Amino acid sequence: MNSFFELLARERVLVSDGAMGTELQKCGLEPGACPEALNIESPETVSRVHRSYAEAGSDIILTNTFGVNRSRLKLHSFEERVKEFCVAGAELARSFAESKNILIAGSIGPCGDILSPLGTLEEDEAFEIFREPAKALAGAGVDLIVIETMMAPEEAVVALKAVKSVTTIPVVVSMTYEKGLSGIKTLWGTDIPTAAEILEKNGADVIGANCGKGFDEMEEIGMLLRESTKLPLWLKANAGIPEWIDGKPVYTQGPEYIRNYIEKMVTLYPCVIGGCCGSTPGHIKTVRETVNLYKSKFI
Question: What CATH number should be reported for the domain holding residue 135?
Answer without folding.
Answer: 3.20.20.330
